[in-house]
Amino acid sequence: MATTSSMTRAEEIYQRLRADILNGRHEPGSRLRVEALKDSYGASSGVIREALPRLVGQGLATFAPQRGFRVVTVSPERLQELTEARVFIEIHVVRESVAAGTIEWESDLLAAHHHLARTPYFSDDGALSEHWLNAHARFHRVLLEGCPNRQLRDIATQLRDAAEVYRCWARTPAEHSHRDVAAEHQMICDHAIARDVPGVVEALSQHINITTQLLLNDYGRHEEKGKQDPGPPCGC
């Protein structure tokens, strides 16, 4: 039987692996070798083997016989499919969330938005801040938590996490300059707190689709540059 300490360690390693994939430290399509991960994370092979299937379940990794575990691959086609699925699911869930959310949900959403708004988008080295990524994930998660159907909320979170891998394509100040991300989040929050279902649906849909379009544009630039200077398309 697993001890509490081993379960806590397994959860810690899973969260670290998940964060490293979402932040581009493991490149899309790269192998997730148990022995290498064991050394890198200072964990037992058993703990690593427990974490990897959870990443597959989250859509962040894949597994195939003879090939093992790999970070999920990225492509414009897959991003467009993820975006279509996200909009379809999240629009339904946010409708339910705004309709059923309690006063406590409102308070949590306002707190999550305040944290996000006060967190710098870029770190000191000019890269997209990990603290911002975490605050951003929390805001979108809380936005949907008013929905009473946990299964739908979990599906929405899984799709958002899978799409987040693509954000490493746009970790440049240029991507941020094309939009006012803070204003987009403010609008989503305002409509949600006002219980304006059509307004929050439109704001969230535009937010997701704008992100995808900018990521696709940035991917195209990486691809064109790669033809002239071969190398990994993802600069994260």
UniProtKB/TrEMBL annotation:
It holds the Pfam family FCD. Residues 7-74 form the HTH gntR-type domain. InterPro entries: GntR_C, TF_FadR/GntR_C, Tscrpt_reg_HTH_GntR, WH-like_DNA-bd_sf, WH_DNA-bd_sf. Keywords: DNA-binding, Transcription, Transcription regulation. This is GntR family transcriptional regulator. It comes from Streptomyces javensis.
